[in-house]
Amino acid sequence: MSVDASTRAEPVALSWRIKERPGFTTVEFTGEIDENADFGELRRRLRGPVVFHLAEVRRINSCGVREWVNFVRDLPGVTELTFSHCSPAIVTQLNMIYNFRGAAKVRSFYAPYVCDACGHEEEKLLDVQNQFGQGAGGGKVPEYACEQCGSTMEFDDLPERYLSFLAET
Ligand SMILES: [Zn+2]
Predict the structure, then answer these.
(1) Whole-structure pTM over 0.85, yes or no?
(2) 75, 46 in Cβ contact below 8 A?
(3) What superfamily would CATH give domain 1-106?
(4) For residues 113 and 121, is the Cβ–Cβ distance under 8 A?
(5) Is the CB of residue 28 less than 8 Å from the CB of residue 17?
(6) How far apart are the CA of 156 and the centre of ligand 1, in A?
(7) Is 35 helix (H, G, I), strand (E, B) or coil?
(8) Residue 7 confidence (pLDDT)
(9) Distance, CA 150 to ligand 1 centroid (Å)?
(10) Could you report how far apart the first and last alpha carbons of the chain are, in Å?
(11) Neighbours of ion ligand 1 (CB under 5 A)
């Protein structure tokens, strides 16, 4: 979890937005998960099927991991938990920390792609069920054409490492 001090952006405190949908609740998280994260109110409030939208969680430090793990493993009112739009920072934790997801199912996540021809980088949203579920092409990473030059983009990490959390799904 080392971050180069020279490229380190100002920390953004964690916040969330709760949206009640017919039959379920979504919680959109934004910012960083660190020792200041306090999930107490959220824990008491959440009921029924819940989807955590995690695209805007850009960094998690080791204290934050502990807070998060304690949070997701003790959600007494939640009947079904789903992680959606997991950012690369979330994927990294899913791969390293066995109980980071608690009882959650991962629905979708972002993966880094890069174009070797022109250097264009992009995070692509991958759907677990459609792209890695049973009968979905044997778990291969999907290919994308570069929006800048049309060349085929490369998966910008080791797929067997970046996608290792899928084995637990
Ligand atoms: Zn390109």
Answers:
(1) yes
(2) yes
(3) STAS domain (3.30.750.24)
(4) yes
(5) yes
(6) 13
(7) coil
(8) 56
(9) 6
(10) 24
(11) 115, 117-118, 120, 146, 148-149, 151
Decide if 1 contacts 61 (C-beta within 8 A).
yes
pLDDT of amino acid 95: 96
Mean pLDDT in consecutive groups of 10 residues from the start of the chain, 169 residues: 55 92 96 94 95 97 96 95 98 95 97 97 95 72 95 95 84
84: its two tokens? 């959606």
Q: Which residues of 39-72 are buried (b: 16+ CB within 10 A; e: fewer)?
A: beebbeebeeebbbbbbbbbbbbeebbebbbebb
Residue 151 carries which side chain, given as an amino acid letter? Answer: S
* In the chain, where the domains are located: 1-106, 112-157
User: Where are any strands of DSSP class E within 5-153?
Assistant: 15-21, 24-33, 48-60, 78-84, 105-106, 108-114, 121-127
